[in-house]
Structures are given as C-alpha cells and as structure tokens.
Amino acid sequence: MQGKGFIKFMAILLGIVCVYSLSFNLVTSNVEKNAKAYAKGDPLKEKAYLDSMATVPVYPLFGFNYQFCKSKEINLGLDLKGGMNVTMEISLGELVKSLANNPTDANFNKALTVAQTQLNAGGKDFIGLFVSEFEKLSPNGKLADFFSNQDNAKDLKANASNSEVKSYLSKEATSAIDRSFIIIRSRIDGFGVVSPNMQKQEGTNRILIEMPGVQDKERIHKLLQGSAELQFWQVYQNEEVYSVMENINKTLASTLKDTTAATTVKDTTAKTESKLAGLAKKPVGKDSSDVKKLEASKNNPLFSVLSIPTYQAENGQPALRPGPIVGWVAQKDTAKVNAYFKRPEIASIIPPTFKFMWSVKPMEGSKVFELYAIKVTSADGKPDLGGEAISDARHDFDQKGKPEVTMYMTGEGAAKWKKITAEASADANNKKAIAIVLDNTVYSAPTVQNEIPNGISSITGSFTVNDTQDLANILKAGKLPAPAKIVGEYVVGPSLGQTAINNGLLSFVLAFIVILIFMALYYNKAGWVANFALVINLFFIMGTLVSLGAVLTLPGIAGIILVIGLSVDANILIFERVREELLHGKSTALAIKEGFKHAMPSIIDSNVTVLILGVILYIFGNGPVQGFATTLCIGILSSLFCAVLISRLVFESLLNKHSNITFGNSVTLHAFKNIAFDFVGRRKIYYAISSVIIVLGFIFYFKNGGLKLGIDFKGGRTYIVHFDKSIETEDVKSKLTPLFENEAPEVKTAGNDNELKITTTFHIADQDTHADKLVEDALKAGLAKTGAKYTIESNQKVGPIIASDLVYSAYGAVLFSCLLMFFYIIIRFKKLNYGLGAVIALFHDVLLVLSFYTILDGVLPFSLEIGQDFIAAILTVMSYTMTETVVVFDRIREKLAEHGKDDLHGEERNKLINFALNSTLSRTILTSLTVFFVLLVIFIFGGDSIRGFIFALLIGRVIGTYSSLCISTPIVVDLGKSK
Known about the structure:
eight-stranded antiparallel sheet, 23 strands, globular, cell membrane, transmembrane helix
C-alpha cells in the first residue's frame, strides 16, 4: 500500500484537531459543574458564578477564558436545547412607498399590492415584480417622477429610465435588509442570548434567527418588531458628571445597608486622600490578570460596581479622563446600576437634563460596557437631531487609508447639524462629543473638531472596515423605515429539548451497538477491524462538526447514525470482494489487496452520489434539514477515509505480524452462494407490482383529498401541548373551534395520550403584530375549558410566503438531484440507457413512497405529513437507490472489461445483468439489513419528533433495495433492446 506515511500523518493530524475541538466541551462542563455546586440549586447564583468566570482563564494548557471556551463548544440545536427560531421578513413594499414619499397614485399602489400577492405565491424579486406590474398598468409612466428628489440626486437623476430606477430600488432594498440585520443583531446581543445564530437568506428579504435557551416569546416579539429610532444627542464630559456620580454614591450609601459587590483594583500609585484616590484606571474586566475580586465598602455602593475612567496625571495622582465616557461597568452589573438610577431617592437628585445610556456592545476582549450621560437640551426631551435628517452614509477611507464614515445630511438637517456642531466645537480646549444613538443605545460618540456647515461629515476613530460598514448602515437606518415582521417561528420548551437529547442518545448508543455486534458476528476478525474504523469515524465526525461550528440537531444525530450505518457499506463491499478472491484460492494478503482494488470504483461511485444529494439537501433545505445534510456530508467524507484507508492500514499491520485474519465463520462464509435468480426474466412482474401500488396511491390520494401537507408547505401554526392526564382529541377540537371563529383546528395525539399536536391556519395571513398573541390567547382559553392542567411544550409558525418558498424549493431539490444523478451516471458509465434507467428508478421510488404515505395515512398511530423533513427523507431514499444501482452498474462494467467488450445485447446482456445482480446480492442484502436495523432502532427509541421522518427512511430503504434489484437495472434491458 503506497502513501502509508502520509495517511498516518493525516490521521494523526485530524485526530489532534478533533481532540482540541472536543476538549472545550470538557472544560466548560467542568466550570458549569462547579457553578452548580456553588449555587446549590439557585439559578441566579449559578448565572452570577458563570458571569464572574467569563474572563477568567479556565483552559489548563492555553489559558483560554470561559467565555472563549463556551463559544467553541458543540452547538446544540433548538430541538435539543430549547429556544426560539424566528424568520423575519423586511417589508419591501413599505420601503418602496416610503422612498416615494407615500404617493396616492392608484396604479403605483395597485402595482405594490399585486407584487406582494405574486411574492406570496412563490415569486422571488419583489422590486422586479413591482416594476414589471407598474409598467403594465402605466405603459407610459415614469418611476423617476416618484423617486427622484433633491436628497438622492447624486444616485438617481430626474430623467432616469425605469430600469435605472429598478437598479436604484434594488440597491436600497439590499441596503435596508443589511441595516435591519445589524439592528436586529444588536438588539439580540443586548437581550443577552447565548450563542445566537443569525443569517440572511440570500436572494430573499428574510433573516433567519436562532436563539437557544430563549423562552420569553412576547418579549422577543417586541424586541424584534419594534421600529428603529436613530437619534443624535450632545453628551456631557466625564468631569461634568463626576460630581453627580459622587452624590449618587453618597445617597445610596446612606440608604442601602449590607451591600456587597465586586470592586476594581485600586490605583497603587496614589498616596494622597484625593477624591479620585481608589478609582480604577481601567474598566473592570479589561485585563482579567489585573482584576481582583474584593468586598465592596458599604460607603461606596455605586463605585463598587461602576469604575470612573481615570488616568495617571503628571503629578502621579489619578485624574478624571477627558471624554464622553462616564463609567465602566461589567455586563453582569449593568442591571444593578440601572436599578440604582431608578430608585426614587436617586432619580430625584439626577438633573433633568441627564439621561444615562449604555454602549451598544462591550469593549473589545471584555464583558465591560461604557456608560454615557446624554445631554437633554429641549424642553420636550427630544433629541437634537433625528434619523430623518440623514440622506446617505457611506463607509470610506481617509487620506491616510484609515477606515472612516462619510455622512450626508438633508437640507433641513444640515442647518440643524451646523448649529449643533458649532456648539460642540466652540471651546478649542474642550471639544465635545455627539452620540449616535439607536434604540436607546450608543453606537458611537465621535468628538466634533469643527463646525460643519454643509451637512457632509467624516466620522473617524479606531475603526475596522467592518466597524465603518456597520456604522454607515446604522446611520442610514433612521432615513427610511423598512418594518421587519415575524413570518415564521419555532419555539421549543427546555423539557421537550431534554427529552429529545435523552431519546437521541439512547437511539444513538443502541444503533451503534447493533452495527458493532453484526459486523463482529458476520465477518469475525475482519469485522472487528471494521468496528475499529467505525469508532475512529465517529470520533472524526464529532470533532469535525465542533471545529466547523456546526449546529447539532436531532435530525443531525439521525444523520450521524445513518452515516455510521452506511459506512459499513464500504467495509461490506471490500470484505465480500476479499471473500470472492479467497474462494479463487488466493492468499490472504493478495485477496485483501485485490478486494480493496476491485471494491474501490463501487465505493467511490456510491459515496459520490450520496454526497451530491447531501449538498443538494444543504442548499435547498434549512433548519433541521440542513442539520441532517451537514452531518451526512461530513460523515460520508470521514467514512471514506476510515473505511478505506484506516482499515487498510490495520490489515497491513496484522499481515506484518502474521496474524490469522478471518472474513467470516462456518455459517456466514457460504451465505448467498450459488444464487442464480432471474431478475431480468421476472421484470414484468415487478413492473406490475409497482404499478398496482402507485395506482392504489392515486386512489387514496383522491379519497383523502390529496396529500396531508404539514405547515411547512401550507402555512399555519402548530402547538405541542402536554396535559397532566389523557385527553380526547375531539373534545379539544370542539372547544377550540368556536374560539377560532369556527375554523376547526387539526388535533392529533403526539405520541402519548396526554400530548396533543394542534394545527391551525387561524389568522395566519394576518400581518398585524398582535395576531400571534390573539391566536395564542384563543388557544389558551380553549385549553382551559378542558379542565386539565397543560403546558405548551413547543409552537411553530410558518407564514404563507415561507410555505410557498419551501414548496418550490422542495420541487427544485428533487428535480435538480434527478438531473445531477442522470448526468453523473452518463458521464461515469458512458451509456444513455444506464442514466435513463437510474432516473426512472428514482421517480419510481418517489411515487412509491408517496403512495405508501397516502395508503397508510390515518392507519398508523403517528403523523404522516409532507413537510421539509419528508423531502429530506425522499432525497435520502433516492441516494439509497443510486448507491445500490451504481454498485450493480460497476459490476457490469467490470465484466464487460474482462471480456474486452463495450456492451452486450439480447440474451447475452440479460445473462450479464443477472450475473451482476446475483454476484452483488450479498452486499445489497447485508447493507440494506444493516441500515434497516439502524433506522428501526431510531424509529423505536428516537422520539416522536422524528418518527415520521424515520418512517419515510424505513420504507425508503425497503423500496430502494427492491428498486435497485428489480426496477432500475432491468429497465436498462428494455431501454437498450436495439443497438
């Protein structure tokens, strides 16, 4: 075997990377164990302990702090951890109306309405739909008349063509989505979500947000859907605020008793009793090696949690640091400082012109926030300038090549800006800052150097390119409203997540044991080699998932188990070929060499087809489907490396030690021998069986009123409700129907008699932000009438637009995968009829699975809905068929090469195809049984949430095996009868 040294090097290197990636879980687990021991069941104490450890080194070797280690541990999906998954949609219709200054033109507004309707029906480009519809309604109309104005004259001329206006609107729409993304991200960061996951859905006006651990749905709704308000405020300087802070501290000291908190390091250079002696020169937590936890003095309750910014003056004494920052506070103490400021005795001594605000994010490398004192100069408490004054903002570079932001004001805004900047820069020795505020948090507070008369300003500082891009987007956020609405959400309770973890782990362990036992019993010593490769494979998969930052979901666990089941396929292919070579009288060493050589084409072909489908699943799916696809793709690559290369190294080592390597026992060695089943001759019987099942499927389709679509594909809301006792579905349905305005919900048991799945389309198309609460209040009122105690374990909402998009994505995934498989087979085997045979078999499998779903719907005790996970199952079933089919095709190609022929015809071809099917039958049956048993274990122990998904895989495994033996390859005969 060539390249053994390189393979060993790669295995060791990959092993080190995986050990490093997985080690973070051990470190964080140890810290959290200590936190639980310290808290003794008090969640507030536990959180306080973990907050205090955020910047403390906890990784023994590299000294990483807990915050860093936590960010590197394996991410659990919502179905395993609980939390919220939200899909936000930016209302481009309202953006366009705002850009046009809300015109009353009938054709303009009708074009907007029609464009929105077309978008709801599956359209993609809202701007393109709007422009196209406007041109239909007003053939001679000019869009520039609506959008061109003095403020955007540099971007859009008054005589611009409709296509130029379309480009302008598309650019503004993209910018609005980017601005909304930044605003929403900052709000979530401020909310304190641990490891939030946000991504823009490319090609759409939607943003996907995953927030593990979050359960306060109403608060999240308000947080995400509130309108952004950009403001410009003058700010007080540090020296102007210190006396107020000192007064607050003294007042608190006289009214608070027994207050203790963490304080900062005192200035060890201070030797006098000055007022500033003892105040921190650095923010708390800025450098964890300089910070010590000390008991706060009862005389300094505010200063025990808030550090006044100071510096060391020339005389060696601490002095107040100039600038707009008036305090540094650790994140865990910001709530305490807010509470101090709200106390009646404190609020009364804070001047009415003061308004305290926090920085939008902590200082770099810490969990410390900056506090600003905003100067209220108007009697009505409004800001000096609002976001409507901004006409544009761009990230740029100054003459020295450093990142900066250039801000442009409207005509009215420029006049106000001139006055504000003149006041801020009036004192040459004491330049003042102006705070840029969004959602009552300070994004930046640049110091004004000079009066700005023309409304064009440059904002400079210690910025990165990302900083200036974000700030430019924030400045533009207040210019034009683009409301964001929640069009889809998924909420999972923590108890449901823990159940999913338990079920997932149980199914994982049992499935793994099933495979290990089977391989050891069937292939004897060689089976143990395969088992060793499987263990290494599992280690590599988990390590790679963590190192890539992938999110592990319940379908992801199913994907790992499935990959482990499929990875034995490569070992079975190799071992069966080795056994064939041994029967020809070859030595063990030569048989192993030849077995690996002859099995490689089939292994590569079968794994490439599954990998292609995994990539398609990842591209077209989202959420759980992407989790499944991610583990599938990583697992396939890892399995190839372990099953082929690692196992080969182990065999080489055993041969060098002259060990006796056995590939079976007295029972298994002669299994599947001397089989000569006439698959080709009986093909018409198989065609008839498949036709009967498909016809029955059509009959039940019309009888049941079509396929039972899940809310993924039709839109709606689904609630999983746990009751304290068993409850009748019809009773719940009758109580909910009147409250849902006589729109009857669908009520089913969800695994147990005391768990129900309630689905409704009540108010699903309602765009009002209060619609969600209205539906949930009606649900709770109906459930209360049952007289049973209940808990809403999870809920999911899918809007009509999301549903239509998912339907078209599903069609695209299935058709695109069929097309790719067709071209792959033609390129790989250079036969058109082979490609056609494979693709026809794929469509046959899809129809058969759909037929079984319609026939068995209502018969089985679990839901058989068609949703995203079903599409994932369909594509996986297709991969089964392709895997089985290409193995047979490879054997046909091998036999043709042995005879020195390109192809055969007539009875000779029939004999060759039968030979290929029978010679690979052992591998086909063994692989199918292995995967089937694995899926059966997941089906039984994996939990209700993936039972329908696994059922599709189960029947798909049977159909895929049947199709590869009885349909796809025999079709090659009928498609290639004539030369």
